[in-house]
C-alpha cells in the first residue's frame, strides 16, 4: 500500500512511498482510508519515529474487512477512526472500540477532524462536569481542540470565555462558534469560572487555575509552550474562599471506548451543530505544505489530507 512514511532525509520529514499492508489483530478492523487530519503533536514529533514509520492518529474511510472476532461494523461501512498510528496510509488496522459510525452522506474530510480534536474537547468538558449555566474558560481557543471545545461548551449551555493570543484577529470567528467573551489572557477574566479547558500549559495554565471558583476544575489537555507550570507559594492552599479546586489530566489513547463518542460527534457534525473548521485541505502529495503551515502556526483550525 501507499503511505506517508517518516523519512529523516526529506525536507518535511515525510515522503509518499510503499510499505506492507497492516495485519489486523482479531479485535481490529481493516479500514480503507479516504481522509486524514493532521494534529500538531504528531507532526511536531514525527522525526522522533524511525524512518519508514506510518504515523497518523485521525482517519476516516470505509471498512475493508471486518474484525475477525465479530466486533465492530461490517465491511462497506463508512467510519471515523482513531489510533496511535497508521492513519496516514491507504489501509489502517484499528481497534473496533475506536471506531465511530457517521450518518449516511457525511463528508470524510470533516469526519477526519473529529477524533483527537473533538474527542479531547468532549472528554475535557465531561471531566469538568455539568456545563449548563456555568462559566467555562478555554485557553488556546483558536486551535483544533479549542474550536471544538468552544462549540461543545456552548451546546452544553455554558457561558463560554475563549482565550487567544490574537483576539482582534480571531474574535469574530470564535464568537461565531459560540464564545460569549474573547480575551487575550486568563488574567483578563472578570469573574471566577467553574471550569477551564487548558490547551496551552506553562504560565497560562497557572494563570487559568487562578480564575477557578470554589470547587472548580481545570483540565490540562495541551502543552504547546514547552514551559513548566510553576505555581507561586500559597496558590494551592485553597484560601480566599476558593476551596477544593482541582487540576486533572487524561490521555485519549488510553480510552478504548471512544467509538460511541465519535459516533455522537459525527452525528452532531453532520446535523450542522458543529463546524469542522477546516482551514487547509489538499491531496496527501501536498503533505509538506500542510505540515509546514501547521508547524509555523499559520493554520488556525484543522488541516486535512485527501488520500487518493
From TrEMBL:
Taxonomic placement: Bacteria, Bacillati, Actinomycetota, Actinomycetes, Kitasatosporales
Protein name in UniProt: Alcohol dehydrogenase
CDD domains, A to Z: MDR4 (cd08270)
Domain Enoyl reductase (ER) per the UniProt entry, residue ranges: 9-305
Cited Gene3D superfamilies: Medium-chain alcohol dehydrogenases, catalytic domain, NAD(P)-binding Rossmann-like Domain
InterPro entries linked to this entry: ADH-like_C, ADH-like_N, ER, GroES-like_sf, NAD(P)-bd_dom_sf, Zn-ADH-like_protein
Disordered: region residues: 1-24
GO molecular function terms listed in the Swiss-Prot or TrEMBL record: oxidoreductase activity
Top-level taxon of origin: Bacteria
SUPFAM superfamilies: GroES-like (SSF50129), NAD(P)-binding Rossmann-fold domains (SSF51735)
A Pfam family of this chain: ADH_zinc_N
Amino acid at each position: 500500500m501507499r503511505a506517508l512514511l517518516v523519512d529523516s532525509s526529506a525536507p518535511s520529514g515525510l515522503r509518499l512511498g510503499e510499505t506492507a499492508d497492516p495485519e489486523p489483530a482479531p479485535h481490529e478492523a481493516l479500514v480503507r482510508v479516504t481522509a486524514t487530519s493532521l494534529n500538531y503533536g504528531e507532526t511536531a514529533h514525527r522525526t522522533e519515529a524511525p524512518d519508514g514509520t506510518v504515523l497518523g492518529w485521525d482517519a476516516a474511510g470505509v471498512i475493508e474487512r471486518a474484525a475477525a472476532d465479530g466486533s465492530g461494523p461490517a465491511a462497506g461501512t463508512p467510519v471515523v477512526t482513531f489510533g496511535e498510528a497508521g492513519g496516514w496510509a491507504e489501509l489502517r488496522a484499528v481497534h473496533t472500540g475506536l471506531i465511530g459510525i457517521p450518518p449516511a452522506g457525511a463528508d470524510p474530510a470533516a469526519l477526519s477532524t473529529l477524533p483527537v480534536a473533538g474527542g479531547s474537547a468532549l472528554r475535557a468538558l465531561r471531566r469538568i462536569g455539568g456545563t449548563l449555566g456555568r462559566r467555562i474558560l478555554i485557553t488556546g481557543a483558536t486551535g483544533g481542540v479549542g474550536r471544538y471545545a468552544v462549540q461543545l461548551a456552548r451546546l452544553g449551555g455554558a457561558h463560554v470565555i475563549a482565550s487567544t493570543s490574537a483576539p482582534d484577529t480571531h474574535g469574530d470567528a470564535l464568537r461565531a462558534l459560540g464564545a460569549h467573551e474573547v480575551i487575550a489572557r486568563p488574567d483578563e477574566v472578570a469573574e471566577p469560572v467553574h471550569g477551564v479547558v487548558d490547551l496551552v500549559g506553562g504560565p497560562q495554565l497557572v494563570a487559568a487555575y487562578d480564575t477557578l471558583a470554589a470547587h472548580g476544575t481545570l483540565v490540562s489537555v495541551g502543552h504547546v509552550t514547552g514551559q513548566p507550570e510553576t505555581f507561586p507559594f500559597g496558590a494551592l492552599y485553597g484560601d480566599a474562599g476558593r476551596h477544593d479546586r482541582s487540576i486533572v489530566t487524561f490521555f485519549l489513547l488510553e480510552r478504548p471506548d471512544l467509538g460511541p463518542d465519535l459516533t455522537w460527534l459525527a452525528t452532531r457534525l453532520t446535523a450542522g451543530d458543529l463546524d469542522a473548521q477546516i482551514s487547509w485541505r489538499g491531496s496527501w502529495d501536498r503533505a509538506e505544505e500542510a505540515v509546514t503551515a501547521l508547524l509555523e502556526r499559520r493554520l488556525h483550525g484543522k488541516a486535512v489530507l485527501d488520500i487518493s
